[in-house]
Amino acid sequence: MQQNRLWMVVGLGNPGDAYAKTRHNAGFMVVDEVAGSFSTFLKKRKPFPNLLLGHGSTRGIDFILVKPMTFMNRSGPSVKKYAEALSISFKDMLVVHDDIDLAFGRLKIKEKGGDGGHKGIRSLIDAFGGGDFVRLRIGVGRPEAEISVTDHVLSRFNTDEKGVLKQVITTAQDAVVTILCNGTKEGMNKFNSRRIVISS
Hints:
The protein is α/β, with parallel strands linked by helices. The chain has 6 helices and 7 strands, in the order E-H-E-E-E-H-E-E-H-E-H-H-H. The chain is 35% helix and 22% strand. A 7-stranded mixed sheet has the order 2-3-4-1-5-7-6, with helices on both faces. A hairpin with a 2-residue loop joins strand 2 (43-45) and strand 3. The protein is globular and about 45 Å long.
């Protein structure tokens, strides 16, 4: 168990009701689920007007939940400013985000890497000067041939997907807690091979 470590859990998304239930906001959905599970309220705190923040703890592990209120491609600077204020290294940061390269219902934990074309991850890498932070990728699937990637990620989940979306988000919340308490390796072993399938 990783005692005396402060984690920062960053969910990526876009602010505003128009984006609230879209695929691109899967990171926000998971952080909201974690907050609800630990009765943590996310709110703005001075002097960080561009972030919603909450504090929680589980099994001796303290964590900060973060939702950037800038748009996706400008997530990095405000998160970096907050991390510096708390002296949190990016190695103690877990970023939760949508991923079109994973089928809907799949989760994948990575310890580090590039941006994979994700503008929120790219902004964080640019701000922190590297990609050595843990990611929890939430599969949202690739668009149909006639639909652009942008339109796809900014679209809402279809009826079939909505039927199991709660299960996907709850499983992702479990993955977050596993990473915080038991490390990324156990998280990978437990969640990377699982897929929540839409029943026919």
